[in-house]
Design a protein that fits this description.
This protein has a single domain (5-245), classed as P-loop containing nucleotide triphosphate hydrolases (Rossmann fold), CATH 3.40.50. Helices cover 35% and strands 25% of the residues. It has seven helices and ten strands. The chain is globular, with a radius of gyration of 18 Å. It comes from Succinivibrio dextrinosolvens.
Amino acid sequence: MGTYLKVRDFSFSYPKRDEKSGYTIHLNSLDMDPGSVLAVTGVSGCGKSTLLEGLALLRENSSFGQYYIDDKNVLSEKSEKKRLIRSALMGYMPQSGGLIPYLNIKENLKFQIDISNISKKKLNLDTEDTSVLLKRSLELFDDFGLGDVLSQYPHELSIGQRQRAVFFKSICHNPKILFIDEPTSSLDPQNGDKLISVMLEVCSKYSMCVLMVTHDLLLVRKHSLSVLDYESVDAQSGMFVYRGTV
């Protein structure tokens, strides 16, 4: 398999405040093959989450020179089709939230799968049997000790259970690209390590491209992750640079 996600010359500028210059983040180049994982690292407030949201097509004012998914030019598409691409091909695990509070966990999974399949149909992409996807998701919950939470609501779960449930919801529709924002920020080191191990195992099994924002360099080194690291350019800008493993 060749490069699945290709990005060139990404930038995002924050609005100016109090007549001061805005701040801009840059990413010159990004190429990801199926199954590859990149950790996005850098100091707090440098724009890691903004970068993730921009690449996930969640920041409308993001600028791209090129954006290709599976050799298809995403920039040539209108906003509605970009939304469908995001729903059909991408998964997103936010730093907090991510579960619909009035649905139990099984209902959360089914809703995500149904919405994604509708988008795939509108894009004329191959769809998957929703019952098969749901069955696979339920089996993953069982495999990782969460089978007994499926009938529970998000507020009834522990923090660790909730984080794992959000992760499995973000992949239940079988996305090709997964964006993860600070998954261990609310967990102790032991549970954080468990969660990262689960994520890497599952994403590798299903050959997803994974971009994960994290501040935990110990876990990055332990799991030998390649890094997209922030460096300051000047007072008004910074950029993210590929470093390989650290």
